[in-house]
Design goal:
Strand 7 and strand 8 form a beta hairpin. This protein is α+β, with helices and mostly antiparallel strands and 354 residues long. The chain folds into 2 domains: 89 residues; 245 residues, BirA Bifunctional Protein, domain 2. The longest helix has 38 residues. Helices cover 39% and strands 19% of the residues. Phenylalanine binds next to strand 9 and strand 10.
């Protein structure tokens, strides 16, 4: 019997040594230390043994059972350790690798530029006033001193909206410029105090629309930034000083400007302002068409009729207004040759402006 136990132990340990996975190990456990294993069957055969043999065989059988259980536990932890080592090796994480950068979005160059203009105007005391994009003919033209059939209407080809309105003044248009906001603002402020309306210094930014053939030089939509200053004793000198200072803040201290007489129905006198070409420094190049100057805005003293229409008495108040095209300035600054890039949504273009 003792001989048999030695064999059982030897055979079990040998087969255990060859085991390499957990399923085989479990099968080994059932076969070698389970209820119907050879060691356990020795216990059930003890009754047939002599009194002298019984304690010796019992003790030895216990030893074998404990030895096999210990060997099982040892093998089990060795297999677990091996599995852990393997997964550590195969799922290796290199925490010293640099992270993958997130692709963050950015502001559209036209938005960046518009915000810069408004920030400069804000420093100069201009508050932002936003006004509607769909306007009546009355506000877009008539109250700005442009009656029906006035030739100045041809300066701006208009998108009319079909609302069935029979009255000319009620006809709806997509605003062709931000100037109707002048009337809206003046009417709002003068309504608050009709006897003594407050002074005004506002910037009116926003999209405007013109019914034009889209080419490299003209688009059907673009932004404008309008400025309006109304007060007592506002002069053309204030207009010139304010706009020259704006240009210096926008394009640099050394930027030179000049005014040319012009015509707008809603300002009198009217002017256009040029800035010295920042591409060639005034020598003359392709961008400034050899003139050395770039036109950047229209301006003038608010026409008495317009002040009146806004509820400001032209005997007591004067003012100046200006209107500029931020996208045009952006194109000049970055030598963008085709205006269609601006709203073309081509990432190759947009990404250059970070
Ligand atoms: N509204 C004019 C335009 O769109 C610009 C302008 C604004 C001129 C204010 C004078 C004063 O061309």
């Amino acid at each position: 019997m003792l001989e048999k136990l030695n064999e059982i132990e030897k055979a079990a340990l040998e087969s255990l040594a060859a085991i390499a996975d957990e399923a085989a190990l479990e099968a080994w456990r059932v076969a070698n230390v389970g209820r119907s294993s050879p060691v356990m069957s020795v216990f059930s055969q003890m009754g047939a043994l002599s009194k002298e043999e019984r304690p010796l065989v019992g003790q030895r059988a216990n030893q074998v059972k404990l030895a096999l259980e210990a060997a099982f536990a040892e093998k089990q932890s060795a297999l677990k350790q091996a599995a852990l080592q393997q997964s550590l090796a195969s799922e290796r994480l290199d925490i010293s690798l640099p992270g993958r950068p997130l692709r963050a979005g950015g502001l559209h160059p036209a938005t960046q530029n518009l915000r810069r203009i408004l920030a400069i105007l804000a420093e100069m005391g201009f508050q932002v006033y936003t006004s509607r994009e769909v306007e009546s003919d009355e506000y877009n033209f008539q109250l700005l001193n442009i009656p029906p059939y006035h030739p100045a209407r041809e300066m701006q080809d208009t998108f009319y909206i079909d609302t069935g309105a029979s009255d000319e003044a009620e006809r709806q248009v997509l605003r062709t410029h931000t100037s109707p906001g002048q009337i809206r603002a003046m009417r709002q402020f003068s309504a608050e105090n009709p006897e003594n309306p407050p002074e005004i210094r506002i910037a009116l930014p926003g999209m405007v629309y013109r019914f034009e053939q889209i080419t490299a030089r003209s688009e059907v939509q673009f932004n404008q930034v309008e400025g309006l200053v109304v007060g007592k004793n506002i002069t053309f000198g204030d207009l010139k000083g304010t706009l020259a200072e704006f240009v210096r803040r926008m394009f640099g201290r050394g930027a030179k400007t000049r005014f040319r007489a012009s015509y707008f129905p809603f300002t009198e006198p009217s002017a256009e302002m040029d800035v010295e070409c920042f591409v060639c420094g005034g020598k003359g190049c392709g961008v400034c068409k050899k003139s050395g100057w770039l036109e950047i805005l229209g301006c003038g003293m608010v026409h008495p009729v317009v002040l009146q229409n806004g509820g400001y008495d032209p005997q007591k108040y004067t003012g100046f207004a200006f209107g500029m095209g931020p996208e045009r300035q952006l194109m000049l600054r970055h030598k963008i040759e085709d205006i269609r890039y601006i709203w073309g949504n081509d990432l190759r273009f947009l990404e250059q402006f970070g």
